[in-house]
């Protein structure tokens, strides 16, 4: 019997550690440890991380899909890592750059390898006002039937692999749907960049196709989030913080006194 009691006690301790938000209190009340969700931390190059973002090991302390890994302040979108350059909490925007692009030297031409995919389950979205898309066309093999685009100079990067030497980059909006030449290229990659980093003058294309596109990529692109989405509006209006489980389902409103409420902290006595 004594062994059974000890085993049950150990099991209860394990459950309490695994589910810190489900600690029982009075009838129909739930509690959490306020110290488990840091108020604010600095990561990377001085990026301040706090709610609705959260450290990757504290999955219930913020919005779904907004976990940031420490060190270089890394945000993961789908299967790719992005370095967080800036978070503007007042305007609900975060600027990130492809980690692979940033690892290229200052004089290199970064070779983008994938599109940007924002998972549906995250609360982040690509900004429709701050970004423009760059389209990269790699490994192009032109013929008389599909000649190269006359106004677009080739990417002038000796560091590109041989198969990529005949490659182009241009603002996506400058490629018309009826243009035949993109069909002569082996690979097309489209990535967002900050709109104000692109060149609007006549020198736009020559500068973009030398080192200009690399500079634009390293400045990153912008994502936004909407704090009024879902059940968070009432919770945050009452000075609480929304909590979600690892499946992205709303768990409750975390209040400053350690209690978890269904909707808002204003209901506290």
Automatic annotation (TrEMBL):
<feature type="signal peptide">
    <location>
        <begin position="1"/>
        <end position="18"/>
    </location>
</feature>
<dbReference type="GO" id="GO:0030247">
    <property type="term" value="F:polysaccharide binding"/>
</dbReference>
<keyword id="KW-0325">Glycoprotein</keyword>
<dbReference type="InterPro" id="IPR032872">
    <property type="entry name" value="WAK_assoc_C"/>
</dbReference>
<dbReference type="Pfam" id="PF13947">
    <property type="entry name" value="GUB_WAK_bind"/>
</dbReference>
<feature type="domain" description="Wall-associated receptor kinase C-terminal">
    <location>
        <begin position="157"/>
        <end position="258"/>
    </location>
</feature>
<dbReference type="InterPro" id="IPR025287">
    <property type="entry name" value="WAK_GUB"/>
</dbReference>
<dbReference type="Pfam" id="PF14380">
    <property type="entry name" value="WAK_assoc"/>
</dbReference>
<protein>
    <recommendedName>
        <fullName>Wall-associated receptor kinase C-terminal domain-containing protein</fullName>
    </recommendedName>
</protein>
<feature type="domain" description="Wall-associated receptor kinase galacturonan-binding">
    <location>
        <begin position="37"/>
        <end position="98"/>
    </location>
</feature>
<dbReference type="GO" id="GO:0016020">
    <property type="term" value="C:membrane"/>
</dbReference>
<keyword id="KW-0732">Signal</keyword>
């Amino acid at each position: 019997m004594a062994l059974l009691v000890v085993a049950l006690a150990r099991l209860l301790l394990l459950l309490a550690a695994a589910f810190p938000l489900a600690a029982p209190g009075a009838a129909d009340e739930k509690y959490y440890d306020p110290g488990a969700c840091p108020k604010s931390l600095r990561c990377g190059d001085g990026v301040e991380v706090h709610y609705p973002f959260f450290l990757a090991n504290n999955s219930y302390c913020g919005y779904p899909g907004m976990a940031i890994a420490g060190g270089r302040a890394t945000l993961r979108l789908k299967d790719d890592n992005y370095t967080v350059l800036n978070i503007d909490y007042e305007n609900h925007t975060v600027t990130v750059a492809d980690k692979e692009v940033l690892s290229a030297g200052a004089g290199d031409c970064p070779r983008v390898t994938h599109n940007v995919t924002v998972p549906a389950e995250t609360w982040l979205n690509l900004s429709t006002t701050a970004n423009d898309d760059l389209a990269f066309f790699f490994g192009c093999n032109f013929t008389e039937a599909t000649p190269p685009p006359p106004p677009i100079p080739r990417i002038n990067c000796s560091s590109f692999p041989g198969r990529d030497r005949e490659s182009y980059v241009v603002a996506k909006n400058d490629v018309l749907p009826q243009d035949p030449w993109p069909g002569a290229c082996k690979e097309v990659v489209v990535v967002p960049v900050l709109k104000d980093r692109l060149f609007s003058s006549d020198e736009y294309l020559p500068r973009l196709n030398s080192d200009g596109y690399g500079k634009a990529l390293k400045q990153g692109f912008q994502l936004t989030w909407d704090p009024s989405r879902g059940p968070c509006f009432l919770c945050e209006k009452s000075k609480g913080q929304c909590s979600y489980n690892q499946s992205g389902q709303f768990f409750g409103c975390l209040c400053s006194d350690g209690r978890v409420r269904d909707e808002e902290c204003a209901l506290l006595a």
